[in-house]
Structure prediction request, 176 residues.
Amino acid sequence: TEEILRQLGLDEGTVIPLNSDGELARISAELIKELQLQSDGFRMSCRGLLISLLVQLKRNSRRNTDARIEKVRAKLTVDYAEEITNEQLAEMCGMSVSGFAHQFKKEIGVSPREYILQQRLSAALFLLENTNRTVADISRRVGFEDNLYFSKFFRSRIGISPSDYRNYTLNQSEKK
Prediction:
């Protein structure tokens, strides 16, 4: 939890103004429901929901975001699978590489590389849950050329292999 909070820039003392965000309410209600029911796999589900809740809080906390950085963030959200360097991203902003990297982390809460990895992981989770594509195909589609590296990365972030994650989500949907 501390690592996730640190990555999102929600360290001790961070104040986040809450508004009537429907997404926050939806995620919170889902989290509470999971905690009350405690069905099979509820801990993993709660973990994912908590991360979603924290990410949404972070997004809501952004004010006066630098338009140049927001433009890059939007590009990376869509083009996460492309190989792109900090030099290219800095050039898009008309900034030096170090200035861009510093400003991106300040505005978004993580480095550009970490942001890309988060987007790739999010896309991989979606594809594993909603398609029958092979893990190797998903790996390539989300921007990992090396399937073994993808599997190691996935396990380090989620705690289980991509195949085990797919099997788990299939079992959960069959129980519903």
Notes: The chain has a mean pLDDT of 84. The CA atoms of residues 42 and 107 lie 33 Å apart. The radius of gyration is 17 Å. The longest helix spans residues 42-61.
